[in-house]
């Protein structure tokens, strides 16, 4: 069955720049050139929230792994962290000296990665938004930066036509991929962490192995590719292009599976949900669309299981051949699973859920504290101003 349009959100007043699903798929965030962040509810008849705060275009949005925070970066050079609730409160910090093009949370939710037109990539703590360090070897705007799934590597894409791979601990650039013929708009890690995909203004999508630093796949399109997203199984890649299409690539076969027409004008951004059953897209037409993936669910249910048991993806030039194909691996995983005690499994799941919930609550608390601190600072500043004014009035009277 082909992917199908599921929902259609209208509310932005200018081009949509970025979309992201929350962990539980109940919410979808989008950023736009209209300076607003919208949070859409995936449940029918639930209203959308419009968050106002940025003074200029919102270039990027992302939910924290727990789903309790949303980060946004803007042309106003600031980053905001929002609590996605009715109040839509946020903390703000000046992150860069140029437009912030990209925000990304590490998978543990502790760090935030930002990339900017000031040619740098920066890492911050989420709690208190403390600046940690800068990566500054790009010689032009940095459009996108992502942590690897294990948080050890960082990848960045720039208008200097390079994709750079960094070691987070040593803060060194390990490798520069220079094969793009144009600016690199978007880059991301494969869920396994072993390869990256990059989209460019030279109409290509390229997939590299980050262990051998070699090109695995090269897809040539006929329009600028603005954005891409890996399916959680790692078997598919969806792209958004200037010719208004979304394309789904089958990475195992190394071929184009579907071309979807929905947007009028350039498709600017695209993202799979964390479970992979949905993907969202945004366009210059101010619309946000949600699509049902409709791939054979059995196909990637198995694959996701295999991935979790530590499959590595290793490839020849044209196909991302993987251990999953051998079938042996799948069978092995299944019997192990069946042998596990069901109660024990349930216990672990509920424990994991509880922990996740606590982490989320912590995020919100920290955020609330930050918001209160900001208000205090504002109040203190106002008070200082009042006192200074009083002094002036007294001095004027005296003289």
From TrEMBL:
> Where are stretches of biased composition, namely Basic and acidic residues?
334-345
Q: Does the keyword Isomerase apply?
A: no
Q: Which keywords does this Swiss-Prot/TrEMBL entry list? A: Coiled coil, Repeat, WD repeat
What protein am I looking at?
POC1 centriolar protein homolog A
The similarity annotation says:
Belongs to the WD repeat POC1 family.
Q: Where is this region: Disordered?
A: 322-347
Q: Does the keyword Mitochondrion apply?
A: no
| WD-type repeats, residues | 9-50, 51-82, 93-134, 135-176, 177-218, 225-259, 260-292
* SUPFAM superfamilies xrefs: WD40 repeat-like
Give the organism's phylogenetic lineage.
Eukaryota, Metazoa, Chordata, Craniata, Vertebrata
Please give the superkingdom of this protein's source.
Eukaryota
Tell me the function of this protein.
May play an important role in centriole assembly and/or stability and ciliogenesis.
What is one process in the GO biological process aspect for this record? multicellular organismal-level homeostasis
Would you name any one GO CC term? ciliary basal body
